[in-house]
Fold this protein.
Amino acid sequence: MKVHILDDWFDTLRSLPCFSKLADHDVTVWTDHQPDPIALATRVQAAEALVLFRERTKIGAELLERLPSLRLISQRSVYPHVDVEACTANGVLLCSNMHSDAPSYAAAEHTLALMLASYRQIPQQTASLQAGRWQSGVGRTLRGRTLGLYGYGRIAGAVADYARAIGMKVQWWSSPDGRARAEAAGETVAPSREAFFATSDIISLHVRLKPATRGLVTPKDLAAMQSRALFVNTSRSGLVVPGALEAEIARGRIQAAVDVFDQEPLTDIRNPLLAHPNVLATPHIGYVTEDEFDLQFSDIFDQINAYSEGNPIHMINPSVWSRAEGDA
C-alpha cells in the first residue's frame, strides 16, 4: 500500500523498531504540519493509507472528498479529530486501537514531572543559574500534600501510584460510575465536587475528551481552588471551559502546569498560558517519548498490515469494510 505518515515532526519513526513492519509498503513520511485541507490533499493525493500522530491533523470531509485513492486511516486511541461520518461517506475505513488494557505511562510520568517542576520552581531556578544569579526563590515539597485526581482511569491510576510513592495523599473525583468504582476499590473519594476542588493542593485532570466532557471544568470549579493550588492538565484543553483557566490565572491566585492547548501547535508567545509567571507550559509532550511511540505505532502499523491482508482490526466504522466486501 501507499502509506503516508503525517506530522512526524522530528522524523522519529524511521529509527524505531516498529518501522520495520512497513517494509512491504511504499512509505512517505511528512515531517512538517500542513493544516490546510486543500493543500494537504494535494500533498497526499496518492495515499491509500494515512497514518496519524494522535490529533495533530484534523480529518474532515473537505480533505477526504479530495482523496479518491484513500482507503484506510490508521491511528491509536480516541479520535475527536476525525470526522467518522465523512470517512464512512467516502469509503474510508478508520482503524484505531483503543488500548483499554494499559495506560500511557509516558503521560503519567510527565504529569508527575510537571508537578515536581512547578513545586520546586525548576525552570525559574535553572534560568536564574544560567543568568549568573544562583538561587531565585524557595520551592515547596510534594510530600504530605493532597493530590486530587479528576477521572478514575488508567493514567490517573499510574499517577496515583507515583504520588503515593513520594508520600502524597490522593483523593478522587469522577463521573458517578467512576466514583463508585473508586469507592469499591477502597480509594478516597471527595464528599462533593466543591470539596474536591477546595481541599486539593494539586488537581490533575485525566478524562477523555468527548461531547459529554467538553467544558467539564468550569470557572466556578477553578474559583473554588485554594490560594496557590496547582491545576495540572495533561489530558485535553477542551475539558476546561474556554478562557476559564486563563481568567483564573490572571487573578494571580492559583498556579497551572499545562501540556495541552486550545490551538496546537501554539506558537503565540503572547498567549497567557505561555506568558504568565504562574504557569508552567510544555508543548503537548506527555506521550512524546521514543518508547511510547514504538508502542503506539507498532499497533498502528499492525492495523495497516491487517488491512492489506484482508483482515482489518480495530475498526471504528466497520460498515465501510462490509460494503467493500460486498462490492468485491
